[in-house]
Design brief:
alpha+beta, five-stranded mixed beta sheet, three-stranded antiparallel beta sheet, 27% helix, globular
């Protein structure tokens, strides 16, 4: 005579399934996160190769980080991603797959005002903002500085390879964030195409390549006193391992993930470049 499961047997089976789910779900989540980190590292690797191809065609100079002429949707405006993208043939590599905000960004609008891009400049406007909210944040102050000329005008400059004395330890770009909610601190808006280093001075002297003529810094440095600000880490953002690691590419094009403490190795950090470089051999941001 056939009989069904007893209530006790069903409860035992349900308990076993619940235990297995509790064990396996974190494993699946970890595998998914690892896959996204691997994809982000691959994206950064492709950016590095594209940057090398760009330099080989342009006198071994990095592209200008930011060139804005008048209104933000002007035809002559460019950011570095627009100059490098023809070598990647792909816009997806500029986004970190962990950043869910990238998928909802509307590139048909001016990202700064929310107004629709004019039809005459729509394509360039789209490219400009897609490159601007890239999660690949360039180490602007050392690699693509904007200097002030003798007439007080901002002049973007791409550093030449010969000025870089330590390509294997100098950061080219790092995971970044565009903005954060002021209440929750949650990231929003995508990434930032430029980031600032955590410190500038060594033994009281600036290490920026054009400090003698004056340089414009993108976010004014790091701001540890503002834990929910977008520039608490100068625009850098640790997207991976639950906010524990950021993908980093160095100027010799090798890629790795680093924690925030590792990114500030060799320096002290205070608001607005108030800290100092204490060990230049360990500091990862400058050109030597």
């Amino acid at each position: 005579m056939k009989r069904g499961f007893t209530l006790i047997e069903l409860l035992v089976v349900i308990a076993i399934i619940a235990i297995l789910a509790a064990i396996l779900f974190p494993v699946f989540a970890q595998a998914r996160n690892q896959a996204k980190k691997t994809q982000a590292q691959s994206n950064f690797n492709q950016i590095g190769k594209a940057m090398e191809m760009y330099k080989s065609d342009n006198g071994q100079k990095y592209p200008m980080g930011l060139y804005v002429y008048g209104p933000l949707n002007h035809l002559n405006n460019r950011v570095w991603g627009q100059l490098v993208q023809p070598y990647t043939k792909n816009w997806d590599v500029f986004a970190d797959p962990v950043d869910s905000n990238q998928g909802i960004t509307n590139f048909q609008t001016d990202h700064s005002t929310g107004s629709k891009c004019p039809a005459a400049t729509l394509q360039l406007c789209q490219q400009f903002w897609q490159a601007t909210v890239s999660n690949v944040g360039i180490n602007m102050d050392y690699i693509m500085p904007v200097i002030t000329d003798e007439n007080g005008n901002d002049l973007p400059v791409g550093i030449k390879d010969t000025r870089n004395q330590a390509p294997s330890k100098c950061i080219l770009a790092v995971d970044s964030v565009w903005d954060r909610d002021s209440t929750s601190g949650q990231p929003k808006g995508g990434g930032s195409f430029l980031v600032d280093p955590p410190a500038e001075k060594f033994n009281g002297n600036s290490t920026f390549p054009y400090a003698e003529v004056g340089q414009f810094s993108y976010g004014g440095g790091w701001f540890p006193s503002k834990p929910k600000a977008w520039n608490v880490y100068g625009g850098v953002w640790p997207w991976h391992l639950g906010g524990g690691q950021a993908v980093v590419i160095f100027t010799d094009t090798h890629v790795k993930t680093l924690t925030i403490p590792q990114l500030v190795d060799g320096c002290t950090v205070s608001d607005g470049f108030g800290g100092a470089i204490t060990d230049r051999d360990r500091y990862l941001w400058d050109l030597q």
